[in-house]
Structures are given as structure tokens and as C-alpha cells.
Records
---
Amino acid sequence: MVLPSILGSAFVHNYPDTAADIFTIDESFYKFMMDLPSWIPITGMRESSNARDRVKRSMGELHAAISATDRGELLPGGSNGPCDAKLLSEIREEVAPYATSGWAKGVSGAEPSLKLDSAGIRHETPLLQSAMLEAMRLYTLSTSYKYINNDFAVEESEVDKLVRANGGRLATESNTDSLRHSSRSYKLRKGDILCVPLGLQQRDPRYWEDESSFNARRFLIQNNGPHSKQDEPEYSVDYTQTHPWGVGATKCRGIKFSHEEVLNIAVAVLICWDIVPADPAAGWEHPRWLPAGGTAIPKADLRVKLRRRI
Ligand code: HEM
């Protein structure tokens, strides 16, 4: 059984049917892929759907427990970036030359159509890309695992020492004199596995001004300095400050593909749809986040209405 070593023996104790449930889900895998509803009278569908609900619930609780014990923090929500009307119109204007929408003849008459110029989107949309990076900074919680090849020691940095001395918060040097000489060092041994929670850096106030706020322009670099070249674009995007695709030798192998995919999908959604709150009186109430790993998960459903723009 691999489950205890991956998920912990407490998890297996609390949810002893998880392995069986996973096999029950697998039996209806293709039906789920076809998006068939759970009430459809096909043998095994209801059982698989119930098993899927149980696994989703238990995994949610596992994430909550890991986060609470290992990190001791809940994720702040950040501001409501996606409903900034001015930003939305600026991004739509920026991407408009690379997205041609209209009507095309389809099998059942005229159908809405959208053509994307992926290369144009990749090279000419700094604001969209900065906003994408900012969304990834706030809402991805990637973890990088490193296998230690040789013994070595890591010394605590000065700034980490100050933060530790001040109970995990930023501190000035003056109130931490007593800890000046208590530097910690961590010995890493060959064969150990090191876990780097990149999401922590992404929300650390030592690296980010107003770290919980969504600032779509955070990663823009203005290029009109005295040394800028004539044909240089006005803005470029700084991809070096945040690492949602991981770091080092195990860095994501799908960066180029997923980068392009995310940008294209974002452009398609922004061009094709207006998104408004389902309940206009409630407005854009941020549901906050569940503690989770990988990707931030909203605490509650956020119901919206999509209105077609083409
Ligand atoms: C926005 C989408 C994606 C994000 C944020 C993402 C993020 C990550 C992260 C954080 C890692 C671990 C990196 C580390 O250990 O430092 C990883 C690994 C990996 N990703 Fe992605 N990924 C994405 C999409 C994809 C796609 C579309 C593919 C394949 C087509 C892919 C293939 C891989 C592979 C093969 C690894 C393992 C690399 C290794 O261990 O050598 N990823 N990804």
C-alpha cells in the first residue's frame, strides 16, 4: 500500500475506503470525461459519483490539515483584480489586434468564431502577461521537491533571523539584539528530500509591496531609459521575480505550452464574454480561500453570469 507513505497513516486511518473509492471512480472515468450527470441510469455511475464526492471531501480535509499544521496560516484573499473595469478595457484594447472575432458559416448556420494570433499574443501583450503573472503569484502554491545529492549545510540568513526573532513578522534590527548570535544552520544529508513551498515566497512582504493586493502592473518594466534601443517596446515583463512553474532541475517541462495556452484562453474569454455577478446586489464579494496546496481554492462558489460579446 502506497497511500500511508504518501498521504500519512492518519489519513488512511480516518478514510480507510479511499483506495477502493479511487478504483470505483476509475470504473466510470470515461463517463466523467463525457460530463455525464451522476443521475443518468448507467450501471455504476451513481456509485462512482458518490465515491468521487467522498475522495474530494477527504482530500480537501487533508489539505486543510497539512496547511494548518505545517504552515500555520490561512490564505488572504487579495483584492478583486478581475473586476477592475479599467484594467479589463485596457487589456481588451491591448489584445484586440491579435483576436479576430465575428461570425462564420457553421454546420447549423452562422456561428460565432474567434481567431487568435498566438505569436502576437505572446510577443505584444505585456499588460496581459503581467496580470497573468500576478494572478499566478497570488493563486498558485507550487511546491518544488529536491533530492539531495551531497551533504551540505544551509545557514539562516540575517533577514530570516530577524523575522524569527520577531515571531514570524518583519522586524527592525534594534529590537532583536539578543538573537544576533543565535544563527541557525540546517544540515541536509545525501538522500534527503527537500520541499520548497514556492507559494510562501509569492506572498512574503519582504519581496512584495502590498503583497496581498492584486496589482496587474507589478511585473511591467518600462523600457524608455537612456539606454533603450530604438525598436524596443515601451514595456516588457519581468519573469524573474516569481516562480509558479518551479525552479532548478525539476522545473516544469510544460512551461512554453502552458504559458501560451493560458494566455490564449484568457484572451478568448475576455474577448468572447462579459462576466457579471449572478446577484448584482451582492456584487463581487470575494469568497476568500480554503487552505490548499497547488492552486488556491475559493471557500465558496462564486456564481457569475456570462454574457456573449460576439
Ligand atoms: C500553468 C500551468 C502549469 C504550472 C503552473 C505548472 C507548474 C509546475 C511545477 C511547479 C512543477 C514542479 C517544478 C519543480 O519541482 O520545481 C511542474 C513540474 C512538471 N510539469 Fe508543470 N505546470 C503547468 C503545466 C504543465 C503542462 C501543460 C505540462 C505538460 C505538457 C507540464 C509538465 C510538467 C512536468 C513533466 C513536470 C516534472 C518536471 C520534472 O520533475 O523534471 N506542466 N509543473
---
Amino acid sequence: MPGTGGATVAEEFPVEKCSTCQANIIWATHEVSLKPAPLTADPDPNGTFALRMTEGNVTYRTVPMAKRFGRRDLRLNHYATCPQAGQHRNRGRVAA
Ligand SMILES: [Zn+2]
């Protein structure tokens, strides 16, 4: 059995709630573009984003597919999974 020993240090990120579906999310800023995005608080097997704490700010970057293998700490963009995503897109409009 590989992988015994070598404790994995779980980094802690500030978890918030999605304003519409109340799922746990982590707001992070893209390392390069500085665009903020809500990522899923829990890692996902199909995740593509790696989170990191940088000087007190949570940043994320996209992990190339070739480097995702075996990783269990990658997240999805919550907008891709949020059941209320339509409300995010329509934010600012008043529904009748
Ligand atoms: Zn949501």
C-alpha cells in the first residue's frame, strides 16, 4: 500500500455560504487575472483549481490536466454546480 506515512497538512481556507443555495464555498482570487471566483469548499474528483493561501488571501490557479492525476485537493467553480446558478447570472434584474 503506497502513501502511508507523510502526513498531509490540510490547509485551512475561510469557508462561506453560497448566497443562493447555501452550499459551502471558498472565495478565491485567480493568481494571474485576479478574478474572484467561488470554489467548492470540498475537493472534487473532477476539480481543476488548486487553492493556496498567499499573504492571508486565498488564491487559485488552474491545474493543467497532465498534473491533475492523483490529486485530491482540487476544486470546481461553484457556479458550475450551483443549482441556483441562473440567479447569479440574472443578478441585478428584478424577477416579476
Ligand atoms: Zn450555490
